[in-house]
Design a protein that fits this description.
Elements lengths: L8 E4 L3 H5 L7 H15 L10 E3 L14 E5 L2 E8 L4 E9 L5 H10 L3
Parallel strand pairs: 1-5
Antiparallel strand pairs: 2-3, 3-4, 4-5
Length: 115
């Protein structure tokens, strides 16, 4: 007998939504591809630590105090999200484009683009 897992709901929260719509962060030409990748990789197994998804350590930069954070890599983007098992939801709260820098540096540089 095969048991099907319920699909997860993917929700973009601020500032992820603002970043996704910001041409300097996610160019229009990348948006459809990025949405397709997020949906296909996260909608069934968002907590499967694979080559492209990983749970961040609590002391790993960038720091998100008191949160269990996951990072999805869709080259060159990094998508940060939280899982809410009781609601079967994935809350994406940050998207950045990483270019030859640490994730922490990418995070800081991307936030500057919202100012």
């Amino acid at each position: 007998m095969t048991t099907l897992k319920k699909a997860w709901n993917v929700i973009f929260q601020e500032p992820a939504l603002l970043l996704f719509e910001n041409e300097k962060v996610v160019p229009k030409k990348d948006r459809v591809f990025l949405l397709q990748e997020i949906q296909s990789r996260l909608s069934r197994l968002p907590d499967d630590e694979s080559g492209s998804a990983k749970k961040l350590k609590k002391d790993q930069k960038p720091l998100f105090p008191n949160r269990e954070i996951w990072q999805l890599t869709v080259v060159p983007y990094r998508i940060f999200y939280e899982l809410h098992y009781s609601e079967n939801s994935i809350n994406i709260f940050f998207i950045g484009r990483k270019i030859k820098e640490s994730t922490d540096e990418m995070y800081e540089r991307t936030l500057e683009k919202l100012e």
